[in-house]
From TrEMBL:
EC number of this enzyme: 1.1.1.100
InterPro entries to which the protein is assigned, alphabetical: NAD(P)-bd_dom_sf, SDR, SDR_fam
UniProt keyword list: Oxidoreductase
GO molecular function: 3-oxoacyl-[acyl-carrier-protein] reductase (NADPH) activity
TM ranges: none
A Pfam family of this chain: adh_short_C2
KW Oxidoreductase (keyword) present: yes
Protein name, as recorded: 3-oxoacyl-[acyl-carrier-protein] reductase FabG
Family as reported in the entry's similarity comment: Belongs to the short-chain dehydrogenases/reductases (SDR) family.
SUPFAM superfamilies: NAD(P)-binding Rossmann-fold domains
Organism: Polaromonas vacuolata
C-alpha cells in the first residue's frame, strides 16, 4: 500500500532506539524525510547511519538528527533551528521511573508532567498551524496503554499521560481535521524495549521475584503470548501518518497484543 506521504518531512522524538526508532525507520521506508532527536549523540548517530544504509530507503530520502533533550526549551530551539516546518510530528519521551507514590515529591511530578504532557503540547503548538495552512498534518503522540489500564507502580506516567490524552481529545476536534490535520495517540502495551525491562525490574524488586519470572508471567498474560517489537509498532505509526488515516483523529490506538480486556 502506498501511504501517500513520500516527500513529507517528519520530526520523530526519542528516536535513537526503541519505539521512536521503529517509527522513524517505518517513515523512512515510505520515503519520508526525517529529523530525529534524542539525547545520546553516539547512539542517535549510529541509528541514523543504519537508516541511511538501509537499501529499502527510497533514493533521496533525507535523515537528519539533533542530539538534544526535547523536553527542554533549549532542546526544542535546537530542533527548530535545523528545520521549522514539519508535516508529521511523532512525540515521544522516556517515561518517568516506576515506584511508590508516597516517595514522589513535587519535583518528580513536575518533571513527569513536563516531559510527558507539556512537551508534546509545546510541539503541537509549534507545528500545527503550519500544517493547517498547508492542508496536511499528522501528529502522533506515543503515550502508554496505562492511560486505559493504569499500572500501580507507574503512577507518574499514568497521571502525566492521562493529562495529555485529555488535552488531545479537545484540540483534535477544534477544527483542525477540516484543514487536513489529525492528532492521535498511539498506546503501546508490552514491547521489547529498555523501558519494559526497566519496569519489570521495578516489579521484580517489589515482589522479590527474579526478573525472568516476572517477565515470563507478563508474557503469558498477553493473548498474543509475546511482547511486541518496535518494527510492528512503527508500521502502525506510519499508517496513522498516511493519507489513508485522514478520517481518524482524537483517537487512542492501543497496540498491546490483546492484553486490555475491556470492550471499549
Amino acid at each position: 500500500m502506498d501511504l501517500g506521504i513520500s516527500g513529507k518531512w517528519a520530526l520523530v522524538c526519542g528516536a535513537s532506539k526503541g519505539l521512536g526508532l521503529g517509527c522513524a525507520q517505518a517513515l523512512v521506508k515510505e520515503g519520508v524525510h526525517v529529523l530525529v532527536v534524542a539525547r545520546g549523540v553516539e547512539l542517535l548517530s549510529a541509528s541514523v547511519q543504519a537508516m541511511l544504509a538501509d537499501t529499502s530507503r527510497p533514493t533521496g530520502t533525507e535523515v537528519l538528527f539533533v542530539a538534544a533533550d526535547i523536553t527542554t526549551t533549549e532542546g526544542r530551539a535546537a530542533v527548530f533551528a535545523v528545520r521549522r516546518e514539519f508535516d508529521i510530528v511523532v512525540t515521544n519521551a522516556g517515561g518517568p521511573p516506576p515506584g511508590d507514590f508516597r516517595d514522589w515529591d513535587r519535583e518528580a511530578w513536575i518533571k513527569a508532567v513536563d516531559a510527558n504532557m507539556l512537551t508534546p503540547i509545546e510541539l503541537i503548538k509549534a507545528t500545527v498551524d503550519g500544517m493547517a495552512a498547508r492542508g496536511f498534518g499528522r501528529i502522533i503522540n506515543i503515550t502508554s496503554s496505562s492511560v486505559k489500564a493504569p499500572i500501580d507502580i507507574l503512577g507518574l506516567s499514568n497521571g502525566a499521560r492521562s493529562g495529555l490524552t485529555g488535552f488531545v481529545a479537545g484540540v483534535a476536534r477544534s477544527g483542525l481535521a477540516a484543514k487536513g490535520v489529525t492528532i492521535n495517540n498511539l498506546l503501546p502495551g508490552a514491547f521489547d524495549t529498555d523501558r519494559l525491562r526497566g519496569t519489570m525490574s521495578g516489579a521484580a524488586a517489589k515482589s522479590g521475584k527474579p526478573i525472568e519470572e516476572v517477565m515470563d508471567a507478563r508474557r503469558k498474560n498477553i493473548p498474543a503470548q509475546r511482547f511486541g517489537n518496535p518494527q510492528e509498532f512503527g508500521a502502525i505509526c506510519a499508517f496513522l501518518c498516511s493519507t489513508h488515516a485522514g478520517y481518524m483523529t482524537g483517537q487512542n490506538v492501543l497496540a498491546d497484543g490483546g492484553a486490555f480486556s475491556g470492550t471499549f
